[in-house]
Amino acid sequence: MDRALYLAMSGGKQVMNAQTIHANNLANVSTTGFRADFEQARSMQVNGEHYPSRVYAMTENPGTNFESGALQHTEREMDVAIQGNGFIAAMDGMGQEVYTRRGDLQLTTAGQLVTATGLPVMGNAGPIFLPPLDELSIAEDGTISIIPEGGDGTQITALNRLKLVSADPEDLTKGPDGLIRTKDEQPLAMDNNVKVLSGFLEGSNVNAVEEMTNIMELSRRFEMNIKVMNTVRENEDASARILQSS
What is the pLDDT of residues 101-144, one digit of tens each? Predict the structure, then answer.
């Protein structure tokens, strides 16, 4: 009976872990550029000093869904969406280069171009800083042009260029912060084939209906594991009564 109890207990725990993954996906259904996580379960043997006669279920995150989300037209000059595959390079708090599809860029009071979460956006030679300006535009290849503050409106100057990169999804991993990194922790080179669309944002690629369906199915699995545990307890109680009566 302990085998059935252990299997049901470990199964219930892993179902809760799977629900966490799908709940996080669902919570980010409206997050710009979000990439949904996959989830799968498999059986694992319990190894030890004795013969491995126990197995348990293990939930794991085998990867991330890198399919593109729907484009949203914003007409905002600092909103950009990646066309096809590719990423915008940024820098995290540890100074490591990271990658994102979130293109709702901002300009700080110091003139630094950052992501919506405050991460410095990378350019040709590091983080991008811009002088005071009246107007800004971002070309298809990521080139940033401005009209300087106080100009006559005709002095358009190209100052920098977004670092746009691409890589095989097999070489990438998504961290708990939702940012993409290379598995070998080496920065990617700029890819001139990656293009952006100014005035648009890419939405999340989460399918809300699919995530809700998965959560409901996992809830039923959890209830099934609880029923198995209750059945094991009832069987143990019945066995104890038989032994007492004999």
Answer: 999 999 999 999 999 999 999 998 899 999 998 889 999 999 99
User: What totals of helices (H) and strands (E) does the chain contain, helices first?
Assistant: 2, 18
Name the residue range of residue 241's domain: 2-65+206-245
Phi, psi of 76 (to 5 degrees): -80, 135
Per the rule left: phi > 0, alpha: psi between -120 and 50, beta: everything else, 129 is beta
Tell me, what amino acid is at 88?
Answer: I
Same domain, 40 and 84: no
180 and 225 together in one domain: no
Which of 164, 172, 169 is closest to 195 using CA atoms?
A: 164
Spatial separation of the C-alpha atoms in residues 232 and 96, rounded to whole Å: 51
The reply to whether 8 and 25 lie within a common domain is: yes
Our count of domains for the chain comes to 2
CB 128 within 8 A of CB 160: yes
**pTM for this structure?**
0.79
